[in-house]
Write a structure and sequence with these properties.
Elements (H helix, E strand, L loop, with lengths): L1 H18 L18 H5 L1 E7 L3 E10 L4 E4 L2 E8 L2 E6 L3 E10 L2 E6 L2 E7 L1
Antiparallel strand pairs: 1-2, 1-8, 2-3, 3-4, 4-5, 5-6, 6-7, 7-8
Amino acid sequence: MKKAITLLLALLMVGAFTFALVGCDNDSGNNETGDGNMSADLVGTWDLYIEGVGVAMEGALVINADGTLESMEIPMEWTYADGEMTISFAGTETDTWTVSLDGDILTIGAVGEVLTYRRA
């Protein structure tokens, strides 16, 4: 039962994380920021991972090399610089996520939450 509650809370966080993008201002761009290989390393399909539960949602985040991104099937655009991803929703609204990558573990801080993803 505890695992089911934890999974439900994680899914709710992903939903809040996605919908929070709608209330911000922006400008969009591409993901080429002279950040070494970090932008390239972020590209791929990521499964939401919850410690003690495991994979909570397969393919929860898809980051593409062309500067597009999908979370819960909502299309967005992204750029990366200095440990932060700037996310553009519908080309007009943005949010900034703090990002760290350790091998195949991606940690994103956004909307007051920290989410962990594993490369699919």
